[in-house]
Amino acid sequence: MDGLLCYCRQGFEPELAAELTDRAAQAGIAGWARTERDSGFVVFACEDADALNRALPFSTLIFARQKLRLIAELRGLDPKDRIAPMLDALPPARGAGQAPLYGELVMEHPDSDAGKPLAGLARSLGNALRPALRKAHLLSSQDSKRLPRLHVCFVDGDHAFLATSAPADSAPWPLGIPRLRMHADAPSRSALKLEEALLVLLDEEERARLLKEGMVAADLGAAPGGWTWVLTRNRLRVTSVDNGPLRQHVLDSGMVQHLRADGFGWQPPHPLDWMVCDMVEQPRRVAERMATWLREGWCRQTIFNLKLPMKKRWQETQLCLDLFAQQAQRPLTIRAKQLYHDREEITVFAMPAKP
Which of 4, 6, 78, 332 gives 64 a disulfide partner, CB atoms 3.0 to 4.6 angstroms apart? Predict the structure, then answer.
């Protein structure tokens, strides 16, 4: 099989399939998406997967948690020996003294109701498969971050995909899910969304450069203060705009000014470093308001959520991002992703594009 294997949030397989299909067509690459509702993954088969892989950088995919280059799909695996068929399906080793093909083995399963019970099988088989791969000179004896990763994804006890990922063009976490812990002081679960957004949508250099002590930010629709709390933990001073109350310990930080006002109508008296927004509103209205902030120069960068409708979510995503880019009336760097801690929404990061 030639193509890509991408993971997604359970229930969003049609959106990911539509995204891959549209993006492949735009690149002039023929192919077709194969998936099942609630499976947690999409296979996109095509004749030139290498070209498709280059045309669809992982950072540009919105509904994909992970992007993998397929090697093989194995069905009817014998529970008595699943390893031999896997070794047979892999490319041959480069030879003694040559670098192995893979730097790390990642054993996975879809993040779905059907996939989660396979975690134990994946873990135990990985313990047996790693030494077999090393003996065959396919896997590095010490995890190498420079070499491609080998992924084994079980979708049933006798059904698995073999695939690879490039460290620079994929998520670094198993299943594409960063493991973040809910802090005891976090005012709400939504804090995890902003923490994940800063981790996924910004690189290490950008986090160091764009999140500095003394910077100023606005949090629109702030109550009860989850996103404000994350910003203060990054040493930013925050104007939190919401008619609702904030948790007292957020106010007690001394870094927060709470304005009881409508986040949609408020504008800052002077330009800010950041504006963040997690308001429950029609996505097009949010996109237009966020564009106004960047067009008028009220903030230098922003992170916001777009709540998606139940139907035509991929189409609405395209429409809103196009509307946002057009109405900002300036070149922007825009990154969007459905994060693990998102639900019926996507998260967007935007800042002026470099000249």
Answer: 6
